[in-house]
Amino acid sequence: MSTASLQGATGKRSLLSSLYFQVIVAIVLGVLVGVYAPELAKNEWVKGLGDGFVKLIKMVIAPIIFCTVVSGIAHISDARKVGRVGVKALVYFEIVSTFALIVGLLVANILQPGAGFSGKPDAAAVAGYLKQAGEMKSVDFVLNIIPDSVVGAFAKGDVLQVLLFAVLFGFSLMALGERGHAVRKLVDDMAHAVFGVIAIIVKAAPLGAFGAMAFTIGRYGPSALGNLAFLIATFYLTSVLFVVVVLGIIARIAGFSIFKFIAYIRDELLIVLGTSSSESALPQLMAKLERLGCSKPVVGLVVPTGYSFNLDGTNIYMTLATLFIAQALGVPLSLNEQLIILGVAMLTSKGASGITGAGFITLAATLAAVRPELVPGMAIVLGIDKFMSECRALTNLTGNGVACVVVSWWEGELDRTKLARGLNREIDPSDVSAAVTTG
Question: I need a surface site. Which of 63, 297, 315, 386 has the fewest CB within 10 A?
Answer without folding.
Answer: 386
